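Tutorial, part two.
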Amino acid sequence: MTLEQFFLAHPRAALGLSGGTDSAYLLYAGLRCGADVRPYYVKTEFQPQFELDDAVRLAGRCGVELTVLRLSVLEQPAIAENPAGRCYLCKLAIFGALTERARADGYPAVLDGTNASDSAADRPGMRALGELAVLSPLRACGLTKSDVRALSKEAGLFTWNKPSYACLATRVPAGMPITAELLRRVECAEDALFRLGFRDFRVRVCGGGAARLEVAASQADAARQMRRQILEAVRPYFDTLLPDAAERRSE
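Running the prediction step on this input gives:
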């Protein structure tokens, strides 16, 4: 199946737009296929501001209005307690709210940007998508992450080479309660490192006021050379940055 065939079968759909590469291309492709695709962004404590900014920018470039839904996932104790299955619970809450609003707005199908490279074994939130009958056109059409990046570059989308970004809650180890203040510190620390020129990295919470920096292999040398600047950038948010930055792991 091609995306053209998918949107011919689903000409009116709501899309969970995350601000990332995959959902950005799906919005562009759906509109180009002539479908009525309405983008929604669900803003929780787990999404950093730059993701919303990118979603707004992308929707504007595509000539459509972005609907922003506000949802406090930390009001749900089962999520705030940060159990091993938190991702499933969070995805269920986010897409549950999106699905309810989309149906009220007259959109019978709800889409997300999961692609054919995404493994269900690595993404427990995909189970929630299945339970809510959310459709993943990129995955259904066999489009991998590399395919989506190439097609996005060809389309001139600024998101074509944007690093994959997992929500802020993934910085907190399972079992450690998540608070809005802790997430704020992570977001501020990562913003400071963005300003130093780092792109594909994570600031991982270790507890006791400490954190660890994980960077992509391509920026490992820069992280070692800029150790002093990194420490100064992170110090307002974490007392200790553990030594020897680790290579960023996938999520």
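The longest strand covers residues 36-43. In part three we will examine how such features are distributed along the chain.
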